[in-house]
Amino acid sequence: MVSNGSRPLIGLSTYVEQARWGVWDTPAALLPMSYVDSVVRAGGVPVLLPSVGEDVSALSAVDALVLTGGADVDAARYGAAAHEKTVSRPERDGFEFALAREALRRSMPVLGVCRGMQVLNVALGGTLTQHLPETVGHAEHQPARAVYGHNRVTLAGRAAEILGSEAKAQCYHHQSVARLGAGLRAVGWAADGTVEAVELAGERFVLGVQWHPEQDTDDVRLFAALVEATWT
Questions:
Q1: E strand or H helix at 40
Q2: N or C: which end of the chain has fewer CB atoms below 10 A?
Q3: Which amino acids are annotated catalytic?
Q4: pLDDT tens for residues 17-70?
């Protein structure tokens, strides 16, 4: 809890990818700038958290956690064989599952974005549908490679308190929640019934959204709600 009048520190998990900049082409811990901008505009100070095995001691230095988007969760973590379209990053999974569980143990405010929502769900014992096109198609969720789908999501619970009963969502996911993890409840749905938001009952702020709110840095209400939760 922030108590000294300073701006809260918001930890953001980072991608683990091969990246190119300047003369370099090397593995990197990186994050789209839109996450950083969203946290700053919401009144927080972004702190990037690179994957370091399962050492989550960095949580002691931040006031809230954002589990960011990225590659698929390893299907073995929910007892399934990997679909041919599932692309995972096991080293990132190890770190983020440890982060999620420790943040929940500490009752820390948590926002899960896309993959981050799926990490929350699986960390709490839930499962995932591995390839949505086999059940509902691509159109709203992932229309093409590197193209966000524009979806309208019906909301309830904390998500509705923050965004209203409906929200415009920029989606890029081919997986989704199947069985909900322990204590989670669905609070957002696409028109085809896909779960687009979840919350953990009884916590001051544990919310996951399947879309990418950081893509609209003019609307940082979800990040602002996370920042506000650090003061309670």
A1: helix 33-41
A2: C
A3: 114, 212, 214
A4: 999 999 999 999 999 999 999 999 999 999 999 999 999 999 999 999 999 999
Contact by Cβ (8 Å): 214, 31: no
Q: Which domains are assigned to the chain?
A: 9-229 (3.40.50.880)
Residue that the structure tokens 């593995």 belong to: 27
Long-range contacts of 98-102 (CB under 8 A, 24+ apart): 98/54, 98/55, 98/56, 99/11, 99/13, 99/49, 99/56, 99/59, 99/65, 99/67, 100/65, 100/67, 102/56, 102/59
The half-sphere exposure of 168 on its side-chain side, counting CA atoms within 13 A, is 7
DSSP class of 153: E
